[in-house]
């Protein structure tokens, strides 16, 4: 049952062109040269050669290979360990020659469907490749445009830099007289304000004195608790009596209070009760200065053409610095209008400043545009710029739990299907395919840190297809994601006929 | 326990602690009965045996043992057993409550033997199995001494540590108050006593003490006075014990708190303990499971070894802490012989181990006793302490270590021969995500030509942790998945844990709830705990109806989507209760028959597996051998299959400890064990993973497993060199499957485990007694796996028989090592130091296949390694690899023997099996002279067939080419 010596078919398990090495009329030398054995030892189900070359048709050698002829389908090798193990591995069933395993030869069927498949694949490859060529054109065009734009912007930059310098000088020149005029103006304001304050204080002191006289029943110049207790207006708790405690409260914890103390502290405490009774005619003067209103309006910046990625920029910070006005401004009602001469100086300075700011803003815009173009030109869009058109697009894939998003040259993310926030799986890092096929894998790195784990990352496998589609997304290792992305960009130039592809594929 | 992102609530506190949090598990100090026993004063014992009370029957004897302080009579029952063993039972003579007698651990009621009264004196009695194997019972103080052919081998209560807490009624609430105070004060004994008397004086009447009411205990414990106690007990003790009150004041006797958990202890104290010393034995082994050395260490300066089945997160190494399983069995190794003690108790048990210096311990009485021992030298002593249950102890008198193992497995059973696949390579992960993932994994093994027999599915394969179900989307076509596996001869193992999700739409829960199948709370309601599925209840496997129910669930028409190629993994069966005390069940929860969980805890896990085993038998009409992996175990669990060493970690220390852990299990009857290859927690470095595969390939149960949060680590994912090394390691396992299989068959017959400490085969070589980095597979292979990082060489101890001439052959190079002692062996990353003993014959199958099933008919290579006399022998067992047909004689068990130029194969018994396998190669190592010719003769034929061979003169190796010897015939070769 073991060994197939004498089987007419020749040497089983070897590819035809090797058959010449097995010459029945001579002793056999192991292909590695290690041993010379009688020819009868070939395929006798005993391993004589270290390289397994004496047993191409049996399972005797642990390192041997068995050749499935598979006429009608692909011929290929299988490990010797699969010969006569009860499982049909060759489609022609030739590997199970001794076990009686009932293998049906389905090579022709497999061949037919494989050819069909190969044809389809070939077709896809062809169409995909055509698209890739277009992508490539677009990509190159885009690079060219970017280059041109870059140069234009560079020129603009040097122009605007000059303008900015010039305007800065003008601005500074205009601000000197403005500073002087404003200082003068503020001094005037200050004077008016102190005059007003003095008259207010006088008024209040008079009022307080009047109150003191009235409260100091015995007119001895000292206010005592008895005197307070005699005044029902000081009944704070409304029990109809002014207790000693209540009196003490108004006398700042003392039993008596001099006139001077009353002016400083007592009056403030008692005043609300006094007015309560007496309906003091004049409203209390505002004794505190209202803090200046913050800021006012920001200088208006005309919003020009803003590019993508707006959110990354914060205009606010820079604009605040433009505010040159002294923040110590009088309350609105007390603002002293500028005299015409001052007004003119201020207006001129503002105009110079605005002009300068405009130039500065424009310069920064240009610099930002330049940087974007530069960054984008640094991206490796492939040898033929074929990946370039993918940049700026995003693709989604939804499985049972999540919607995955892949934006080539940008980022990948995941968000729960049934609500919840998006999690960044990674940002564009680099191409990570094997040396001979670098552009087959895009690596997105430095995603959100996993709880108690590493930063997320995502590996995207590119394979040839007619449309750009994510075929699958998974997390084979914790926090390490993988996607399969079908795209024309991964289509190699089709070679020859589908049959070539079929043959080429497995061998 | 496995970590889950969802388990935040209860386990956050210990989920992300680095390593075990000792604070989650009790020390002896925190376990009141352990503390009380450890504090027992030494000699003289408070107990005397009333020798006059001896009542002798044919196979057993009864003697009263009395606590002289409390005057509580106990009954000592001595039973003589067949095969050199005594069994004793001690319990109250007139107990208030029945004590739990462990069931299910013994394979059957042990066969008894006639008991012989050898001597009866006033101060001692001698009872014998024969004139040599005997037990001396000393009256005052009470003590037992056992003798075998080596002389005096075991003493019980030699140090007077015997203490038996009889069941008692809680007489006064005063006691409760005092114990409460004492607990709060946490005082030493004397302070407690002073406090007790102070409170006693202060309060004239106990009834006046304002008590906080505990509904659970109050219902059980009525305030009774002494007279009522006497009336309620069936046969009251003669006197009211005077000292009882003092005892009552010990803290933790009537209720005990641990962390936020309260143990209501309605029955009060019931523990017992005793010292057992082994004169002449300097090594004791056993009482698994601990992550510690094989030889037990002195515990004087730390905690005792603890036996209490617990789900321990990231367990600590080289520690006596309790782990997932408990086998209360010790073996003591003397200069040549060995004896064993099986302490049959399922309650929480602590075991102190002491190195006793020579002299003084065994009283001079022994010299008087006929054949008495002389003063013992330094030796080992153990002190067993159990919380409740019957005191039920087996003394196994050996006299050799293999005899002890046979005696022990004679009592508790052996591991039945597993199916071939079960001893092959298993690939597990928490979790293989879906059926496509499963397909992907086994396809990749094929792509890399790495053998694989079994893929495992952890908890995530179920529909929301409802066991016996499948995730309807991820495993929508489990039968299709199974077909793909079965087509390659492969199997699947699914997990079935004993915690049941409390989901009113879950059929198991509905059934269990409706039938009252769950473990009950103290108030009689179904206990609800927290585990993987969230709120869960636990079937009470002590209820026969529950076992029957569980068994039925495995039927193919109940457990949908399974086939005969699906086998089972019972995990979390300690049981694990995330929110319970020490992550397990509260001790006062109630089981069938009114037993408290306290009484039965350590046996719960085994009963789960028992029911599963019955289920797998029943579903296939008892044709195919079941395979079950369990994490928890008890004495007797070996009868149901494999256990693994739980949730280890990817660290070198965990790899190292796996060897003593498996050896310790092996000599306690668990033949089929192993650790998670690669380490469950954390990510192994590549070299650690390689070394672990190499070690795992030479342990009985060979499974790679990984935690959910680790990186994928299937061996096909690595670089070419790593893949090749791991492929070679797995292939070595497969090549040796015929040998492993033979060892497992022999284990079923003899109880001797496949993986053995050296001293099991070399019992007189005292240098081997503490070794646990090297071991034997069977008696023919010496294995010393590399378990050290960056090792370039390892020191290997080579044992030898008395001639000191034993030859060991490197299995790869046939380099020989002769004599006893250490040799340094150089190792590269490929090297697994394995040596074949001169004098042995090992059967191998060298053709690598995708799975073991596909190797069934492959031819054998016999490796004959000659000893110094030019002889060798071995055995080979063959059957169909899966069914119970071997029990009907469908097998071949043959003896291979080589001497004086003749190699023969003879059947050892009447078993016959027609197998297509044959011998393709015979290698004879150590053959000094080249034969001229070799002829083969197959029995029943007259032909003498001349065989081809090759001889390598330099290495003395003969290779016989293709002798075509069939294994279903006897045959012999003659060398000329």
Automatic annotation (TrEMBL), chain A:
Residues 203-238 form the EF-hand domain. This is Glucosidase 2 subunit beta. Keywords: Calcium, Coiled coil, Disulfide bond, Endoplasmic reticulum, Signal. Residues 180-204, 278-345 are annotated as: Disordered. InterPro entries: EF-hand-dom_pair, EF_Hand_1_Ca_BS, EF_hand_dom, Gtb1-like, LDL_receptor-like_sf, LDrepeatLR_classA_rpt, Man6P_isomerase_rcpt-bd_dom_sf, MRH_dom. GO terms for biological process: N-glycan processing. Residues 300-314 have a biased composition (Acidic residues). Pfam families: EF-hand_5 (PF13202), PRKCSH-like (PF12999), PRKCSH_1 (PF13015). The keyword Disulfide bond applies. The keyword Transcription regulation does not apply. Residues 392-493 form the MRH domain. Residues 349-376 form a coiled coil. It comes from the Eukaryota. GO terms for cellular component: glucosidase II complex. Residues 287-299 have a biased composition (Low complexity). GO terms for molecular function: calcium ion binding.
UniProtKB/TrEMBL annotation, chain B:
Residues 76-352 form the Glycoside hydrolase family 31 N-terminal domain. Keywords: Endoplasmic reticulum, Glycoprotein, Glycosidase, Hydrolase, Signal. Residues 256-265 have a biased composition (Basic and acidic residues). The keyword Endoplasmic reticulum applies. Residues 245-255 have a biased composition (Acidic residues). Residues 415-743 form the Glycoside hydrolase family 31 TIM barrel domain. It is found in: Endoplasmic reticulum. GO terms for cellular component: endoplasmic reticulum. Residues 861-913 form the DUF5110 domain. GO terms for molecular function: alpha-glucosidase activity; carbohydrate binding. Residues 751-842 form the Glycosyl hydrolase family 31 C-terminal domain. Residues 1-22 form the signal peptide. The keyword Lyase does not apply. One of its GO terms (biological process) is carbohydrate metabolic process. Belongs to the glycosyl hydrolase 31 family. This is Glucosidase II subunit alpha.
């Amino acid at each position: 049952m073991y060994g197939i010596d004498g089987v007419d078919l020749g040497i089983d398990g070897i590819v035809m062109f090797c058959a010449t090495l097995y010459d029945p009329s001579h002793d056999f030398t192991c292909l590695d040269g290690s041993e010379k054995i009688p020819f009868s030892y070939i395929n006798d189900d005993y391993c004589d050669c270290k390289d397994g070359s004496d047993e191409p048709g049996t399972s005797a050698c642990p390192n041997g290979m068995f050749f499935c002829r598979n006429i009608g389908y692909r011929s290929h090798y299988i490990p010797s360990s699969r010969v006569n193990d009860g499982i049909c591995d060759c489609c022609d069933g030739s590997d199970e020659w001794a076990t009686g395993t009932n293998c049906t030869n389905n090579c022709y069927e497999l061949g037919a469907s494989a050819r069909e498949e190969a044809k389809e694949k070939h077709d896809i490859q062809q169409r995909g490749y055509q698209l890739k060529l277009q992508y490539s054109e677009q990509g190159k065009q885009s690079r060219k445009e970017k280059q041109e734009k870059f140069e234009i912007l560079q020129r603009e930059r040097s122009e605007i830099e000059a303008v900015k310098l010039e305007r800065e000088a003008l601005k500074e020149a205009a601000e000197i007289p403005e500073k002087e005029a404003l200082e003068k103006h503020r001094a005037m304001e200050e004077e008016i304000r102190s005059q007003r304050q003095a008259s207010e204080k006088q008024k209040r002191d008079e009022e307080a004195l009047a109150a003191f006289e009235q409260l100091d029943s015995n007119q001895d110049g000292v206010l005592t608790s008895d005197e307070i207790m005699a005044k029902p207006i000081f009944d704070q708790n409304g029990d109809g009596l002014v207790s000693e405690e209540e009196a003490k409260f108004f006398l700042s914890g003392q039993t008596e209070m001099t006139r001077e103390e009353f002016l400083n502290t007592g009056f403030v405490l008692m005043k609300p009760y006094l007015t309560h009774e007496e309906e003091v005619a004049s409203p209390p003067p505002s004794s505190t200065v209202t803090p200046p209103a913050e800021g006012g309006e920001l200088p208006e910046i005309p919003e020009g053409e803003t590019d993508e990625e707006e959110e990354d920029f914060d205009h606010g910070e820079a604009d605040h610095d433009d505010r040159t006005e002294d923040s110590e401004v009088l309350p609105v009602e007390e603002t002293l209008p500028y005299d015409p001469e001052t007004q003119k100086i201020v207006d001129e300075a503002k105009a110079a400043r605005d002009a300068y700011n405009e130039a500065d803003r424009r310069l920064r815009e240009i610099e930002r545009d330049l940087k974007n173009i530069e960054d984008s030109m640094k991206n490796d869009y492939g040898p033929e710029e074929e990946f370039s058109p993918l940049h700026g697009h995003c693709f989604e894939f939804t499985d049972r739990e999540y919607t995955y998003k892949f934006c080539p040259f940008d980022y990948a993310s995941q968000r729960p299907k049934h609500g919840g926030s998006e999690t960044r799986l990674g940002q564009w890092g680099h191409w990570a395919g094997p040396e001979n096929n670098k552009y087959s894998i895009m690596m997105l790195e430095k995603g959100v840190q996993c709880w108690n784990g590493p930063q997320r990352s995502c590996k995207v496998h590119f394979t040839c297809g007619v449309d750009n589609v994510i075929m699958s997304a998974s997390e084979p290792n914790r926090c390490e994601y993988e996607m399969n992305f079908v795209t024309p960009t991964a289509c190699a130039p089709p070679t020859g006929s589908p049959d070539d592809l079929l043959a080429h594929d497995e061998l | 326990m496995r970590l889950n992102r969802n388990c935040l609530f209860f386990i956050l506190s210990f989920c992300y602690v680095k390593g075990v949090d000792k604070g989650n598990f009790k020390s002896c100090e925190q376990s009141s009965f352990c503390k009380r026993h450890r504090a027992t004063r030494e000699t003289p014992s408070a107990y005397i045996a009333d020798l006059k009370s001896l009542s002798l029957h044919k196979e057993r004897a009864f003697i009263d043992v009395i606590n002289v302080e409390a005057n509580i009579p106990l009954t000592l029952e001595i039973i003589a057993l067949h095969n050199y063993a005594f069994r004793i039972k001690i319990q109250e003579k007139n107990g208030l409550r029945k004590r739990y007698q462990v069931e299910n651990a013994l394979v059957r009621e042990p066969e008894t033997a006639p008991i012989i009264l050898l001597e009866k004196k006033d101060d001692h009695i001698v009872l014998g199995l024969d004139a040599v194997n005997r037990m001396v019972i000393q009256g005052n103080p009470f003590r037992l001494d056992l003798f075998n052919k080596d002389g005096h081998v075991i003493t019980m209560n030699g140090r007077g540590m015997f203490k038996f807490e009889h069941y008692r009624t809680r007489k006064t609430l005063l006691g409760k108050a005092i114990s409460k105070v004492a607990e709060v004060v946490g005082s030493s004994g004397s302070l407690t006593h002073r406090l007790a008397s102070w409170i006693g004086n202060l309060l004239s009447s106990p009834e006046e003490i304002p008590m906080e009411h505990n509904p659970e205990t109050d219902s059980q414990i009525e305030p009774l006075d002494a007279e009522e106690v006497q009336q309620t007990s069936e046969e009251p003790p003669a006197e009211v014990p005077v000292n009882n009150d003092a005892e009552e004041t010990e803290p933790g006797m009537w209720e005990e708190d641990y962390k936020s958990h309260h143990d209501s202890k309605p029955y009060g104290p019931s523990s017992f303990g005793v010292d057992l010393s082994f004169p002449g034995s300097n090594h004791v082994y056993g009482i698994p499971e601990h992550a510690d050395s094989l030889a037990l260490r002195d515990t004087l300066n730390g905690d005792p070894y603890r036996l209490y089945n617990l789900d321990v997160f990231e367990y600590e190494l080289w520690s006596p802490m309790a782990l997932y399983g408990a086998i209360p069995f010790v073996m003591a190794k003397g200069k040549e012989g060995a004896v064993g003690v099986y302490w049959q108790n399922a309650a929480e048990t602590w075991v102190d181990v002491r190195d006793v210096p020579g002299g003084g311990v065994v009283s001079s009485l022994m010299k008087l006793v006929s054949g008495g021992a002389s003063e013992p030298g330094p030796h080992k002593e153990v002190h067993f302490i159990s919380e409740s249950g019957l005191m039920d102890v087996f003394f196994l008198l050996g006299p050799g270590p293999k005899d002890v193992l046979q005696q022990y497995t004679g009592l508790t059973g052996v591991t039945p021969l597993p199916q071939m696949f079960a001893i092959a390579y298993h690939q597990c992960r928490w979790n293989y995500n879906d059926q496509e993932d499963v397909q992907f994994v086994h396809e990749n093994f094929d792509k890399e030509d790495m053998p694989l027999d079994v893929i495992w599915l952890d908890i995530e394969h179920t529909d929301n942790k409802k066991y016996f179900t499948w995730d309807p989307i991820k495993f929508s076509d489990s039968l299709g998945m199974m077909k793909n596996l079965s087509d390659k001869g492969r199997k699947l193992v699914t997990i079935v844990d004993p915690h049941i999700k409390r989901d009113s739409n879950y059929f198991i829960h509905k059934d269990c709830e409706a039938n009252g199948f769950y473990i009950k709370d103290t108030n009689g309601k179904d206990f609800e705990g927290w585990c993987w599925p969230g709120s869960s209840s636990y079937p009470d496997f002590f209820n026969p109806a529950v076992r029957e129910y569980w068994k039925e669930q495995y039927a193919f028409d109940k457990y949908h989507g399974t086939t005969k190629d699906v086998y089972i993994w019972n995990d979390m069966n300690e049981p694990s209760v995330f929110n319970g005390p020490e992550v397990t069940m509260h001790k006062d929860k109630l089981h069938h028959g009114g037993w408290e969980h306290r009484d039965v805890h350590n046996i719960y896990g085994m009963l789960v597996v028992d029911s599963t085993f019955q289920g797998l038998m029943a579903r296939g009409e008892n044709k195919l051998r079941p395979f079950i992996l369990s994490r928890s175990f008890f004495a007797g669990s070996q009868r149901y299959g494999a256990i693994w060493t739980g949730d280890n970690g990817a660290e070198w220390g965990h790899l190292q400890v796996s060897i003593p852990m498996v050896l310790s299990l092996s000599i306690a009857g668990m033949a089929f064990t192993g650790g998670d290859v690669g380490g469950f927690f954390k990510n192994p470095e590549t070299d650690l993973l390689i070394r672990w595969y190499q070690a795992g390939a030479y342990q009985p149960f060979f499974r790679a497993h990984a935690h959910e949060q680790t990186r994928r680590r299937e061996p096909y994912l690595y670089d070419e060199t790593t893949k090749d090394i791991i492929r070679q390691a797995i292939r070595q396992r497969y090549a040796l499957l015929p040998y492993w299989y033979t060892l497992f068959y022999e284990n079923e017959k003899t109880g001797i485990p496949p993986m053995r400490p050296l001293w099991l085969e070399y019992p007189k070589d005292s240098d081997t007694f503490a070794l646990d980095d090297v071991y034997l597979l069977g008696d023919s292979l010496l294995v010393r796996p590399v378990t050290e990082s960056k090792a370039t060489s390892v020191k290997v101890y080579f044992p030898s028989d008395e001639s000191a001439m034993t030859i060991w052959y490197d299995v790869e190079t046939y380099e020989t090592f002769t004599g006893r002692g250490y040799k340094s062996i150089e190792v590269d990353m490929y090297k697994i130091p394995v040596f074949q003993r001169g004098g042995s014959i090992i059967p191998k199958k060298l053709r690598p296949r995708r799975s073991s099933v596909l190797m069934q008919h492959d031819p054998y290579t016999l490796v004959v390694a000659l000893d110094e006399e030019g002889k060798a022998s071995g055995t080979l067992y063959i059957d169909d690899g899966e069914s119970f047909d071997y029990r009907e004689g469908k097998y071949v068990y043959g003896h291979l023997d080589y001497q004086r130029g003749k190699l023969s194969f003879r059947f050892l018994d009447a078993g016959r099996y027609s197998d297509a396998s044959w011998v393709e190669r015979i290698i004879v190592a150590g053959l000094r002279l080249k034969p001229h010719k070799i002829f083969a003769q197959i029995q029943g034929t007259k032909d003498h067939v001349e065989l081809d061979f090759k001889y390598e003169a330099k290495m003395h190796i003969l290779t016989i080419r293709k002798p075509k010897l069939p294994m279903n015939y006897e045959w012999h070769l003659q060398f000329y």
